[in-house]
Structure formats: C-alpha cells, structure tokens
Amino acid sequence: MKKKVLTGIRPTGNLHLGHLFGSVSKWIELQEEYDVNIEIADVQALTDNFNNPKKVRENVKEITLDLLSVGIDPKKANLFIQSKIPEIAELTIFYSNLVTVARLQRNPTVKTEIAQKKELFGNNGESITYGFLGYPVSQAADITIFDGEIIPVGEDQLPLLEQCREIVRKFNSIYGETLKEPEQLLSKITRVKGLDGNEKMGKSLGNAIFLVDKEEVIKKKIMDAKTDPQKIKKDDPADPKICMIYYYHNLVNKENLETVCTECKNGTRGCVACKNELIEKMNKFLKPIKEKRKYYENNPEQVENILKEGTKKAREKAKEQMEKIRKAMMIDYK
Questions:
Q1: Averaged pLDDT, 320-324
Q2: Integer Cα distance of 71 and 289 in angstroms
Q3: Which end of the chain is more exposed for a tag (fewer CB within 10 A), N or C?
Q4: How many CB atoms lie within 10 A of CB 1?
Q5: Residue 164: in which H helix or E strand, if any?
Q6: What is d(CA 58, CA 54) in angstroms, rounded to the nearest whole number?
C-alpha cells in the first residue's frame, strides 16, 4: 500500500507564487507516488480570523479552485474540508490533556507568531486566544486521525511536527502502541522572497504575485519590484544577486537566465527591458493555470462534488481511526 501523506492549507486568501514553488509543487509530485490527503484547514484559519468567518468561508472555494488549476488531481489526491471532520475536534480535546501550556509557549514556531501578534497589537499578548496557542495540538490531531506517515514541511514548521511526535509518544506510552510517529519531508524551496526583497512572500505583506492576478496587476507589481539600488543609469552594471527581477527570472525564465545575468552584470541590459521580459514570461507561465481555473469556475458543481467526495472519504478514514483510539483509551462505550 502507498504511504499516507497529510498536508494542508489555510483558506485565508488565494494562492501566490510562494505557495506554488514553496509547497504545492511538491504536493503535485507526491500525488504520483503516495496516498496524498490535502486538508482545507478552515478551523485552523479561524484561530486568527474568528471575527471574519465570511472570509474563511469564501476562501475555501478559492483555495480549491487554485489547487485544481495548478495540477492537484482529485483522482490522485484527496481534498477535504477540516470542519466537516468532527473526529479531528474530538481528538484535539483528548490530546490537550497531554500537552502543558508551558510546552506550547516554548514551541519556536508558536513563540515567533506570538511575538508578531504582540508587535502588531502591542498589548503584551493579551489578544492571544486559547485556540491560537493550542493550534499545534489541533495539527497533531489532523495528522494522526488520518494515520499520516509523511508530512511535507518547511524548516519553520519542524517544531510543530516535533510537537506532534511528542504527543504520539506520550499517547502510546499511556494507552499502548496505537499511533504512528509521522516523518518529515523537507521542501527544497521553503520560501519564496517577496517583490520587496522580504524573505517571505505573504498575503498580508503586499509583496506577492497571486495566481489569479490579472495581467495589468502583474505588470504594475513587477514594475514596482526592488532592483539593485546602485544601478542609476540604463548602462550601469548591476548585481543580479540583490535584484528581485532576476530572482523571479530564476523561477519562470530559466531558459534565458544566463543571458539575463550576464547582461545585468555588464550593464548591457536596462531594468525596464528586464522587467518587461519578466512580465511576458510571468504571464506565459500563469496562462495555463488561469485557463484551467476558468474551466472549474464554469463548472462549480464539479468542484462541489470533488470536495464532497473527498470529505466523505476523509470522514470514513477518521471514523475508523477514532474507533481504534477510543478503544485504546477505554472510552469505547456501547
């Protein structure tokens, strides 16, 4: 039997290039060899969008359209909605007894995100909710309810996976060998830089190219992107290593990358010409994705069926696993 892969994405906005090159492209490869399960993590999205449920609800559909348009094949990978699997919530409650608050606060990923929230709201972390602090516990439930064996992650997500493994070991030590410890699969490209040079391309940072962006939007974003500040005149030599235009050429224009690099260094390539070439290549790269998305937009009943069938299949797996867990915990009352 194929090994089970469990991964997920929060429906808080459309996919951008960071998602595609950082994680989703790997999922597309994995679906050819593994039993891939992709969770639309709407419950987790509510941990910091609880006051905007409409945003989460609408983006469940948007994320699904994006995933299908880039090549996630529902015949090979199972797409499902997290909130439609109540066993995940049940298991999260059981796991919450196995993890201390202090351990959650020490989790490097959680610490980083809490620090960001403190900086954003400036209230000593008083805005941190129980749900937000405990989302690593919910993630452990996501993984183990489907017997996830291989989990694709970036380096910044490794502490969350280690927390899951700790929970599995604690559970097995108390209730007997019941759960599998998941293995990590590190992505080769963990992050794609933003157009502004930021180490992370983000939905909320205003530095992303989204897969649904119209051509005129892409043109403006690329024209405004950061280049070598030392290049003043058209024929000044520049350093492509600090130019975001060159960085994105490396993503979508590899066949002409050597020429771009050489001409940039020699001062024979102006920034406007370089940006125009990137705009053309970017639109060419995104065209088949947009065309496929249009097909699914015009066939909404097909998208609904994909989610309905995927969620049904996931629920069956979760029910079976939960029966085993309840039995181990001696709460399998008849």
A1: 97
A2: 8
A3: C
A4: 4
A5: helix 158-175
A6: 6
Residues 6+ apart with CB under 8 A from 77: 27, 31, 36, 37, 38
Cβ atoms of 237 and 266 closer than 8 Å: yes
The b/e string for 272-307 (b: 16+ C-beta within 10 A; e otherwise) is: eebbebbbebbbebbeebbeebeebeeeeeebeebb
- Residue 229 CA to residue 197 CA, distance in Å, equals 12
Q: How far apart are CA 77 and CA 97, in angstroms?
A: 33
Model pTM score: 0.91
Contact predicate 56/50, CB 8 Å: no
Q: Is the pLDDT of residue 123 over 70?
A: no
- Report residue 40's pLDDT band, with 50, 70 and 90 as the boundaries: very high
pLDDT tens digits for 50-109? 999 999 999 999 999 999 999 999 999 999 999 999 999 999 999 999 999 999 989 888
Nearest Cα to Cα of residue 23 among 195, 251, 188: 188
Candidates 292, 330, 311, 313; CA nearest to 15 is 292
175, exposed or middle or buried, with CB in 10 Å at 0-12, 13-18, 19+?
Answer: middle
Would you place residue 304 in the very low, low, confident or very high pLDDT band (cuts 50, 70, 90)? very high
Indicate the burial class of 32 (C-beta count within 10 angstroms; 0-12, 13-18, 19 or more): exposed
CA distance 156 to 197: 19
Residues near 151 by beta carbon (within 8 Å), at least 6 away in sequence = 5, 6, 7, 143, 161, 164, 182, 183, 184, 185
Check whether 188 has a pLDDT greater than 80.
no
